[in-house]
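Handout, page 2. Input:
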Amino acid sequence: MQQFSQQQKLIVIVVVVAIVLSLVSIPFILKKTTTKKKINSLKVWIVGDDRSVFEPISNSFGFPVEYVEKDFKTYERELVDALASGEGPDVFMIHNSWLPKHQSKLASAPAEFITPLAVQKNFPDVVTTDFVRDGKIYALPLSIDTLALFYDKDVFNGSFISAPPQTWGELEEIATRLTKRDESGSIIQSGVALGGSDRSVDKASHILALLMMQKGVTLTEQSGNNYSSEFRNKKTNESSAEDALNFYLQFSDPQSPFYTWDTGQHYSIDAFSYNPSVRNKAAMILGYWYQIAVMKGDENKKGKNPNLNFGVAQMPQQDDVNESRYTTYADYWGYAVAKSTKDPQSAWRFVQFLTSKAQAEQYLVSTKRPPALRSLIASYQDNPILSVFANQILIAKSWVQPGASDVNPLFSQAIEQVYRGQLSSEEAIRALREQVKELFSRIVL
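Output:
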């Protein structure tokens, strides 16, 4: 066998050492090239508030933050287009119904920042339902709005009604007492604005979904990356969804003893904010906190009726349900981080900072919105209006859906079709189930 010379042995050793060193260095090279570049500032897209609300808060963050105000009407489309083009924000607001549709665009929170257990501890249960998937957190809110009962105090006092209804049975009775008709039988004062679609009743689609949920209806379910459209009571297998639709429609049915709403009347917000330009009055409506500024106005906005004397009460519940099953509907926004951001660590650090107690308090004092943190509920107990919304975040519910802007028109359509006699309640629910199923099939994760 040929023997290697000393020089050849040296060459072999040098080659082997060079190969080993190059292999060892590859992970460091890859790590260096794949690490995302740090950025010098964050771009944050907001809706519903002026940037002046946020700027004093972020001054203490220690990192430059640029706020961009967007319009509700075009926000989602602008956001999708901007993210697709690579020109989108680092942090942006998402509606609590958007996660299934936009989850692929979001960066989840690093585990060292916040855990699902911390979300459950600090926020109401609805936040976990809406923004946590498979142990990953995708957004956090500053405020949570909920459906509540608005009632006209002057009308109640004039009819010697001392308290608003707490159950749907009580609401039926009071609404009947408060409904007034002229000589021709036309409604001139509605006891409650219920029974119409979104055309005449503000948030009719939310109210119908809530009635279904209060009756134990499972609207949809998620298993891994698969979504199913249910619209049934899985415990009893009863037609609870149809029952909820029929209950809602009775208020606009002239043949019903609880007929109180003519769909040809003024829009419910206008009817409740009664003024001389509105010919019909509504004594009660179901609505959200943000509608107060629309109806009565605030320091930043002139309302429809600054002299409106109203009260707010907890959302009515089913007559035979105990407190552990009380439910109302949640409608709110969370702050999420774009998957395309160059610095997800800094972006999520900002979201965590913004939604922490000190910063949330500063935001809520400025905007007068209801809280999202459990720890802030007690701060609202002396406020006759905000205390209702603050307490209700603990019973607020939501459901996994393919985006409110796509789903709400379908609920409204179902109301219209049954009201006009085009479909039976059973047929309308079946169609609604299939339509939601189709929307889910378009989602790409």
